[in-house]
């Protein structure tokens, strides 16, 4: 796992400028700027309640927001999550959001609902998911809710890939998972970004995310307080000043 890319993105696929969001009186996100270009995996780090999930929800238009989200050079409408997903901005939410009573295959096929009855395209996308997560292929008929947490996360990422994303947003995919399976999933995200797909990874486990990311944004109390080049972080203690500020 090696960091790729640079701190400057010339032509970002996703370019978030001055994005703010509030819940009632709580200003959860304050004028955040982040970007992700082709082949980049960028991490969003920060302690509990820093605003990481809010940032992803605001990018998707799931919550009221101010500011601008530019995607492939055009502004996304402020509150149109379905439109954003249809264009290729795809979120793997915290908690995975898979449909427990449905089979693994049904969950995956739902991710590609846009293509309708095009079986050939469906098979092509499924093959790609099986290459990424061979274990998923072995469990296609299993009810998704009966899988382990790690397997469910693989299905969640797989379902997002079935939508043929142009940028992939993930909210703490490692939550509650054992280190080995977390490593497997993060390594797959590294493979995806190396193949060109921009990935925005919200993660509390900073050391893991920094191994993969070309750039990390540190959120604290709703504000991006640092943009980090992971290659320049000598020890995790350097980040602690922001976590405990
Ligand atoms: N639905 C909501 N209603 C009111 N306040 C909320 C809501 N969701 C989040 N908040 C508040 O907004 C702030 C940011 O929350 P957010 O979930 O974005 O943080 P986070 O960095 O993702 O935290 P965690 O790592 O614990 O998931 C917190 O103060 C939180 O309490």
TrEMBL record:
Molecular function in Gene Ontology: ATP binding; ATP hydrolysis activity; branched-chain amino acid transmembrane transporter activity
SMART domains: AAA (SM00382)
GO biological process: L-amino acid transport
Key words of the record: Amino-acid transport, ATP-binding, Nucleotide-binding, Transport
Highest taxon of the lineage: Bacteria
Residue span(s) of domain ABC transporter: 14-244
Coiled-coil region list: none
Alphabetized InterPro entries for the sequence: AAA+_ATPase (IPR003593), ABC_transporter-like_ATP-bd (IPR003439), ABC_transporter-like_CS (IPR017871), BCAA_Transport_ATP-bd_LivF (IPR052156), P-loop_NTPase (IPR027417)
Family matches, as PANTHER family: HIGH-AFFINITY BRANCHED-CHAIN AMINO ACID TRANSPORT ATP-BINDING PROTEIN LIVF (PTHR43820:SF4)
Family: Belongs to the ABC transporter superfamily.
Entry protein name: ABC transporter ATP-binding protein
Organism: Metarhizobium album
Species classification: Bacteria, Pseudomonadati, Pseudomonadota, Alphaproteobacteria, Hyphomicrobiales
């Amino acid at each position: 796992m090696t960091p790729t890319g640079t701190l400057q993105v010339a032509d970002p696929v996703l370019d978030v400028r001055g994005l703010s969001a509030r819940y009632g009186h709580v200003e959860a996100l304050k004028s955040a700027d982040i970007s992700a270009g082709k082949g980049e995996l960028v991490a969003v780090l920060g302690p509990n309640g820093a605003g990481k999930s809010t940032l992803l929800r605001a990018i998707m238009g799931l919550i009221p927001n101010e500011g601008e989200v530019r995607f492939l050079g055009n502004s996304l409408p402020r509150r149109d999550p379905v439109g954003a997903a249809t264009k290729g901005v795809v979120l793997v939410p915290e908690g995975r959001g898979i449909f427990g009573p449905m089979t693994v295959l049904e969950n995956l096929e739902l991710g590609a609902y846009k293509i309708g009855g095009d079986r050939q395209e469906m098979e092509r996308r499924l093959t790609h998911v099986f290459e990424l997560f061979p274990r998923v292929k072995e469990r296609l008929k299993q009810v998704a809710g009966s899988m382990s947490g790690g397997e469910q996360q693989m299905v969640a990422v797989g379902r997002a890939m079935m939508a043929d994303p142009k940028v992939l947003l993930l909210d703490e995919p490692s939550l509650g998972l054992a280190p080995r399976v977390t490593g497997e999933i993060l390594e797959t995200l590294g493979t995806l970004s190396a193949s060109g797909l921009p990935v925005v990874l919200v993660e509390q486990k900073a050391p893991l995310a920094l191994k993969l990311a070309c750039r990390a944004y540190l959120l604290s109390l709703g504000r991006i307080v640092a943009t980090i080049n992971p290659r320049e972080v000598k020890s995790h203690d350097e980040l602690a000043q922001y976590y405990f500020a």
